[in-house]
Amino acid sequence: MPRNIPFRIAAIVLAALTVAAVILASVNYTHENDFQVPTDGVWWAESNGGLVAQKVLAGSPGERAGIEAGDLLIAVNDRPILRIASLQRQIFSTGIYSRAMYSIMRYGIRLEIPVILVPKDRSINAGLRLIALVYLLIGLYVLFRRWTAPRSVHFYIFCLSSFVLYSFIYTGKLNLFDWIIYWGNVVAGAVQPALFLHFAFTFPESNPTMRRRRVAWLLYVPGIALIGLYAAAIRLWSATELLSHRLNQVALSYLAIYYMAAALVFFINYRRADNPLTRQQLKWLTRGTLLAVGPFTVLYAIPYLLAGASANSLLSQVGVLCLVFLPLTFSYAIVRYRLMDVDLIFKRGVTYTLATGALVAIYFGAVAFAGEVVHTRLPAAGGWGLAAAIIVAALVFDPMKRAIQDRVDRVFDRKRLDSRATLVEFARSLNSETDLTALLNALVDRLPHILQVARVGVFLEQDIGPLRYYRLAASHGIPSTAQRNDLEIDTSFLQFDGRGDASHIFYESTQNAPHLSDSQRRAVQLLELNYYLPCRVQQSTIAVLGLGRTTVGDFLSSEDVELLETLASYVGIAIQNARLFARLEEKIAEYEQLKEFNENIVESINIGILAVDLADRIDSWNAQMESMYAVPRAEAVDRTLAEIFPADFVAEYDRVKNETGVHNLYKFNLANRAGEARTANITIAPLVDKDFTVVGRIILVDDITDRVQLESQLMQADKLSSIGLLAAGVAHEVNTPLAVISSYTQMLAKQIRGDERVAPMLDKITQQTFRASEIVNSLLNFSRTSTIEFKAISVNHVLQETLALVEHQFRTANITIDLALQPDLPEILGNTGKLQQVFLNLFLNAKDAMTGGGVLHVETAANGHVNVTIGDTGSGIAAENLRRIYDPFFTTKSAVADGQRRGTGLGLSVSYGIIQEHAGKVQVESRIGHGTTFHLEFPMIRKPAHA
Asked: CA-CA distance, 309 to 427, in Å (whole number)?
């Protein structure tokens, strides 16, 4: 608590002085506006017998009246004048724009000269008060924003004294209030330069010599001496215009010398500084001081000291107005940029100085021109011409300022200006990059070249726990130890989304961040980045842009930081877009994969699938529909059902399409474009979207033609099996009476053996019973389920047994059998039942091919193999069907003619398989109208040579 007492006392004192200064300045301004001071424009000095004219100002009432230097003023309006005070009383009593009669002695001759008194020109006072107001506002802003900063109080006292210096202007009444204003101005003029030079010695760090208070107080000795000089002049010396001018010259010399000394101190410290930050600060502090003090010294101080020029001339006013850039430069840099961005203020100061000078020149030129026109050509216009000139000057100022700003930018900072333009173009092009990795690489590649910075890093958001962390995603110039993608780098200090968080984070020294935790401090030291700017999207930080110092060790300017803040927002949007685009690409890839998967299912499924919209127009048509219905997809899509399908199917579809639920059409006969009759199970179901709104119909067509044929064959096989069982039973039953008949016939033949008439008849009965028995035994053998046992068999024997089964059918069909069997035909290894099935199928096919009768040729031969030839003189097989006769279910017997059986398409397919099982081969020759011949080849059994 005791340590805060001095600060509180200082705050109270400064507040009281500030309030008092503002009140006095306001009252002084009001009194000045209400009180006009008349003048004759002559510097008078007291002498014996009157006042001697020391100097007559050019353009003044005295010069226009004809008063010359050296004239002795003895009376005004017939009142004797011996002192300056008497002259002032007569001038005030006469008033402005009134005539005062001056009695002048020139070379011993008395002259009566009328002088028209005019108001004293105080136009410069408005500019001085503007400077005072700028000083006060800037001082208050610095004090409130940087109260605890070193030398902030010192800077505020300097600003307050400058406010008093430029706003306390005595009116000439010389009453008590006027004397307070006068002495306040004198004290401020003595203290303000010393405070400024003291600030130069102590910024940025106190000079070792200045640390001794006695040495520091020596800076204020000339100011104290100046106050004493003013006091002595008022109390001891005669009050003359010349004395007032001399005192003003001394005060102005003191001010200019201290200001130039401060600039020199800044420059020397700049040359000696080793720290890049300090060098950057002092470099632009020197420029800012010269910007304000240089024009003031050259345009106002030197002419006033050497030639006694009027403070109201145009150049003098411009020189005085340049002092406003001293507080602007220092305060703006201290508060906003910590004295690191005075280059921007310097450039703007140059701009506004040039623009202000141009405005003043245009203003006075316009006023002069308007006055000339008014007086010569438009005497009745009066003040309207002057008002028009003022308006024109004000309108011309803004474009002129912009033009000058552009020229100054190009003169002082052409390279950086080009870099900023490049940066702006780069920022605009960011959104065109949709690949996040390419975007980050472009950032870390382009920014170092554009801004000439040594290090750049981009950190992407990574949520871990309650705090938000950022991982280093791309970098340039950052040590490799900091580029590891793990949590060893604690980036939790990058917090921007909380209330009160700054728009960016800046570290003057990355090696000294005492307010951070140990892990955060190590991260800052490891990264060596001085600037961290948030990349925000919708008030949320998704990335952080980090930058170091420039390649020459300087810090970035405020324009660079402001431009980077704008760039950071573009970067945030670009990163967000890249992430969204990546997610969209993932979704698209997933969608494409899912779509391809679904399409593969639809295309691979063994069911025809088509979808139609509400207008019965086909939207999709899978590969199975193409194969089954013989219509390409390109031809089917976008056409109506009525254009593709037959009328009976369309009628069924129209009947059920408006009904709810799923509808099935079982074993629907559907003829395709190729004329083939197909049997299909058809399902018609509603097609709905994700909102369960019906958008069409989906039709599933399951081709069951082969299944129906297989079912028919299975039924036929079942019938054959039943017939086989029945035939076996019949054979057993028939064999019994045949055996009785054969036995009794043989017995009877023995009894009547000598009867030549009856004996032959009994022999025939016996032969026929044997033949009937053989037929029944063959039928019985064929009906039995054969095993797959292979053994040595005679092909001739199998052929004879098979022909015995069909002999009756051939006879009734008028078919003659031409049998040519080789007697000593070698045996083959085979299965009798399976080979009998092959031969029976070939015999029945030949019978069906010879509808009007014909010849069946059966021949066997041995030529290294056992060859079997079965030929007919039937209708033959067409060439296009010849290669398909062994395909399952392929048949040309779909339309049954008289005397033919309906084909299943399995006979030759099964026969071909049996021949393959026997290691045999089959070839076919056929011509339409000439018959068909099958050549079968089986390997014979090779017996040992020495059996």
From this structure: 54
DSSP annotation of 3: G
The two three-digit tokens of residue 935, written as one number: 């050549």
Give the pLDDT band (50/70/90) at residue 774: low
618 by DSSP, 3-state: which? strand
E-strand spans in 551-633? 608-613, 618-621
The number of beta carbons lying within 10 Å of the beta carbon of residue 922 is 18
State how far Cα 588 lies from the chain centre: 17
Residues 846 and 907: beta-carbon distance below 8 Å? no
Do the beta carbons of residue 565 and residue 493 sit within 8 Å?
no
- Pairwise CA distance, residues 446 & 444, whole Å: 6
**Distance between CA atoms of residues 145 and 138, nearest Å:** 10
Question: 3-class DSSP state for residue 677?
Answer: strand
**C-alpha–C-alpha distance, residues 397 and 827, integer Å:** 127
The pTM (predicted TM-score) of the whole model is 0.41
Contact status, residue 292 vs residue 325, Cβ threshold 8 Å: yes
Do 420 and 556 form a contact (C-beta atoms < 8 A)? no
d(CA 163, CA 17): 11
What number is the average pLDDT over the span 549-555? 77
What is the distance between the alpha carbons of residues 117 and 39, in angstroms, rounded to a whole number?
Answer: 6
CA 758 to chain CA mean position, Å:
119
Give Dmax over CA atoms of the chain in angstroms.
218
Least confident of 28-42, 481-495, 602-616: 481-495
Which residues in 305-338 are b (16+ Cβ under 10 Å) and which e? beeebbbebebbbbbbbbbbbbbbbbbbbbbbbb
DSSP 749-782: HHHTTT-TTTHHHHHHHHHHHHHHHHHHHHHHHH
Using only C-alpha atoms, what is the Rg of the chain? 62
Omega before 276 cis (within 30°)? no
Structure-block tokens of residue 856: 């069946």
Q: Are strands 456-464 and 865-872 parallel, antiparallel or unpaired?
A: unpaired
- Contact criterion met (CB below 8 Å) for 336 and 558: yes
Residue 557 token pair: 């300017």
Q: Which residues, 6+ apart, have CB-to-CB distance to 619 below 8 Å?
A: 611, 612, 613, 637, 696
The half-sphere exposure of 538 on its side-chain side, counting CA atoms within 13 A, is 3
| Residue 132, phi then psi, degrees to nearest 5 | -60, -45
Looking at residue 716, what is its pLDDT?
A: 61
Locate 8 and state its tokens. 């509180």
User: Helices 176-202 and 152-167 meet at what angle, rounded to 10?
Assistant: 140
Inform me whether the pLDDT recorded for 335 exceeds 50.
no
Give the integer Cα–Cα distance in Å for 341 and 337.
6
Q: Contacts by 302-305 with C-beta closer than 8 Å and gap 24+?
A: 304/248, 304/249, 304/252, 305/249, 305/252, 305/253
